[in-house]
Amino acid sequence: MSKAKSKVSIANNLNTIDLVQRNLAKRKRAEWRFRAYGVGAILFGLACLLILFSDIISKGHGAFMQTQIYMEVTLDSQRLNIDDPTSDQQIRQANYDSVLAQALIAQYETGSTLSENTADSFKPLSALDKRQLLNLISTGAVYTIGQRLSDNPQLLNQTVGFWLIADDDVDNYVKNIEHGGKGFSSRLNKQQQEWVNNWMANEQVRQVFNSTFFTSGDSREPEQAGIHSALVGSLYMLLVTIGLTFPIGIAAAVYLEEYAAKNRVTDFIEVNINNLAAVPSIIFGLLGLAIFIGFFDMPRSVPLMGGLVLTLMTLPTIIISSRAAIKAVPPSIRDAAYGLGASKMQVVLHHVVPLAMPGMLTGAIIGFALALGETAPLLMIGMVAFIVDVPNGLMDPSSALPVQIFLWADSPERAFVERSSAAIMVLLAFLITMNGLAVWLRHRLGRSYQ
Amino acid sequence: MRTSVIPLISFCLWAALSAPAVAMRDYIDVVGSSTVYAFSTVVAERFGKTSGFRTPKIESTGSGGGLKLFCQGVGMKFPDVANSSRRIKSSEVELCRSNGVQDIMEILIGFDGIVLAQSKSGAEIRLTRRELFLALAKEVPNPDGSENTIDNPYQTWRDINSNLPNIKIEVLGPPPTSGTRDAFSDLVLDYGCHTFAWLAEITEQAREARVKQNFQLAGDLRRKQRRLCRMLREDGAYIDAGENDNLVVQKLNANPDVLGLLGFSFLDQNSDRIRGTKIDGFEPTFSSIASGKYPISRPLYIYIKKAHIGMIPGIEAFISEFISERAAGENGYLSRKGMIPLSRAEREDIAQRVQTLRGKVHQ
Known about the structure:
CATH class of the largest domain in chain B: Alpha Beta
Mean pLDDT of chain A: 86
Radius of gyration of chain B: 24 Å
Structural class of chain A: mainly alpha
Number of helices of chain B: 16
Strand content of chain A: 5-15%
CATH architecture of the largest domain in chain B: 3-Layer(aba) Sandwich
Shape of chain A: extended
Largest sheet of chain A: 3 strands, antiparallel
Oligomer: heterodimer
Number of domains of chain B: 2
Helix content of chain B: 40-55%
CATH superfamily of the largest domain in chain A: MetI-like
Largest sheet of chain B: 9 strands, mixed
Radius of gyration of chain A: 33 Å
Number of helices of chain A: 19
Strand order of the largest sheet of chain A: 2-1-3
Low-confidence stretches of chain B: none
């Protein structure tokens, strides 16, 4: 290297440094802005999530508590219409409405709880008053009484204390008061509010954990409605989807990656699979309606149908993610196995599939999580239905958790607002668990090839 | 790996093979209107809990969709009962007949009120059906009195009637697929339209043409009448708010100047936040709708496939529960859910007909 040449290069360098210096502040600002866009995007996403969660939780948390009212009921055999206490039939069909009505009305006609203003309390109740008084207790309360009596037949003709479920209007009213409000009063008149206030003053009202929400099926009375049957329906559908998608998806992915020749046919299939993954889900519902119900004569509203439709919907996603996972297995592993004399099938089953499994599972679980939250395709195959009984199998009519939310959100009863939010919380919990499982599996089973 | 694949494959095979073998259905299958859904589900639930039969399955498909399914045929895989918030059309009866569904029993179960609601914090608006027609029709009679129509020029309620507040006309309501909107077109727009003599004349001419067997002219006049009397304006005064009435309630709450078209049960449940607009002088209350003074209410029907009675257990018991006093009576549990009951005489008549299973079969 000559002296002259190095001088030139130093001069050039100085020029470059000048240039850099001149632009440095601008470049740093651009850099800072670029990062700020990213942070902004994440903050925006988080803010949306926060608003969504706080809205759902603030609306839905109330549904996990339930108002109950303490009532002493005399299980008078005459009123109940029971002559033979050993007969299950008679106990099942007994007139519990009548004993409950008697217990409620007796409170006021004898004035036992209205000790402060006894003057009012001896006035007999009018028919309208009686009905309004009865409306304060859930229509489901009689089943609580009936259940207790059929479990303990010796209670017949005794006075027993029950904590009975309050009507949804009372539930709303009491919850509102407990949260410092003046009482949500549009559905309760002055007289009814007074009765409830009286019960509250007498500590006849309590809030307990709403187990009904998890143990019973749908109901049109919000206080008796639960997600059990919808949840079971969702699980059955998921079972069908997992059982079908996983083997079919993996078999297709393995064949396309490991065996299929690269030609126009495979290209065509690949394009189609990618397209199907982007098709709106309701189209799969229409497909299911035409093929499974129209052509194969399958019944509507059963989890098997729902599972099949969701299988159609998730298959493309699972094939794509499985193929990506298989592609990520380094060729050196295959070469090493072939070098030791393994057959193609042995290479695939012993090496490629086990190594690709974490990736395939992750893709599959995310696909199943999507299927769990899907409503649109189920609309077409009759799963948007009122179903009270818990399905006993794949061929029993059932609904699904997101469908239940959809139906409740459309109901006029105010108390369903908090119940739909609570059901959304349950669904979110399932989705978070499934996605957490996917992350965990990736960490647990993942390997590096370094 | 291999061991876990075999049970999965056998499961798939079992699932695929067991499917077409439809077993005896032991529950009642009901489809149809989402409005009647809100009431028949209540009946179904009580029925399931007290009768010893299984709880019927009730799908919410809309009246048209439900009747279409209902009319597909007779047999286990077809629905037994269809809910409808309008009367069955003759085209649907025809479809039923062509699929072998001959005997259909029609039962009127009650009425559903349709209300125009607004936030309680807004200035109270009282309207007539004529004013509503002028506010919401796509074309309105020329305000200068000549017998032609112009595109709806009214922007505020005051433009229509100087007694009304100076508020922009905005009405939230369901999409065209909804029965609520159909009923609104029939009972409000069409009625309001007929308060204009020359528009009412068109209907009269169409009737005369039909009598004179001039079906071409009758059809043309009918189409003209429908275009003039039932089209809702599309310039933003009527806002399609989707099928969810709860959403409409929320939007009314947020903006006290808009009106919303709702089912009566939603007004009933939210009466602390919204109020019903008086129409033709009557407030939508339970009694004013039941007595027929409040003008916008529509009939709710259930249709029963007679061929299925005896085939599916419990249909008769389900119907008797539906029309029983404790369900559909004045103080029945359906009225608590917002359904407007029939008069005592009507109820007795229907009970009688159901007893003898005659039912009114359409045509």
